[in-house]
Specification:
Blueprint: E1 11-12, E2 23-28, E3 34-39, E4 47-50, H1 52-59
Antiparallel strand pairs: 1-2, 2-3, 3-4
Length: 66
C-alpha cells in the first residue's frame, strides 16, 4: 500500500525545544488512520508510515518514553 504524504501536516514534538535533531509525525490517510514519521533535518527524505494499530503498539511498548 502506498500512502501519499505530499499534503501531510508535519508536527515536531513539543519537547524538542528547537533542537536540530528531531523527528516529526503526521497523521495521514484519515480513513485508514496512518501515522507518518520523518527526520526533521531531511523533510524531503524518506518517511516511515505505520497503521493506527502499529502506532498504538509502539507507543505502549515501553520503547517510547514520551
Amino acid at each position: 500500500m502506498t500512502i501519499d504524504l505530499s499534503g501531510a501536516e508535519w508536527f515536531k514534538s513539543s519537547r524538542s525545544s528547537n533542537a536540530s535533531e528531531c523527528v516529526e509525525i503526521a497523521f495521514v490517510g484519515h480513513e485508514a488512520g496512518h501515522v507518518g514519521i520523518r527526520d526533521s533535518k531531511d523533510p524531503a527524505g524518506p518517511a516511515l508510515v505505520f497503521s493506527g494499530p502499529q502506532w498504538d503498539r509502539f507507543l505502549h511498548s515501553g520503547i517510547w518514553r514520551g
